[in-house]
Amino acid sequence: MFIIDEKDREYRSGDNGPKYLMKGPRSNFAIVQFMPGQDFRAHYHEIMEENFYILEGTATIVVDNVPHTLTKGQFIHIEPREVHYVLNRSGAVMRMVSTLAPFQETDKIEVENPEV
């Protein structure tokens, strides 16, 4: 058992990207934040499934070249091998929870970003 306060962790890229509250041994749990216009590289996982739950703002999540617009309170589940790309096309901050399981140290295959 452990307790972590989000304010004690930092986003990967200063004010954006994932902020991992837990990384392994069985799953990852992160808060992801994007400022307007920010994104991360399209990718897929061979083994891990990924979930996103929108806490604030609007996210465009492209899964296998199909864009989905999600807002606060919405959840999306992404299966292994489904290519996904997340971007913030809105004019406001977007924050979401990201979970990945089962934990793998390396299981991210980056691909070209889709045209959106």
From TrEMBL:
It comes from the Bacteria. Residues 31-98 form the Cupin type-2 domain. It holds the Pfam family Cupin_2. InterPro entries: Cupin_2 (IPR013096), Flavonoid_dioxygenase-like (IPR052538), RmlC-like_jellyroll (IPR014710), RmlC_Cupin_sf (IPR011051). This is Polyketide synthesis domain protein. The lineage of its organism: Bacteria, Pseudomonadati, Spirochaetota, Spirochaetia, Spirochaetales.
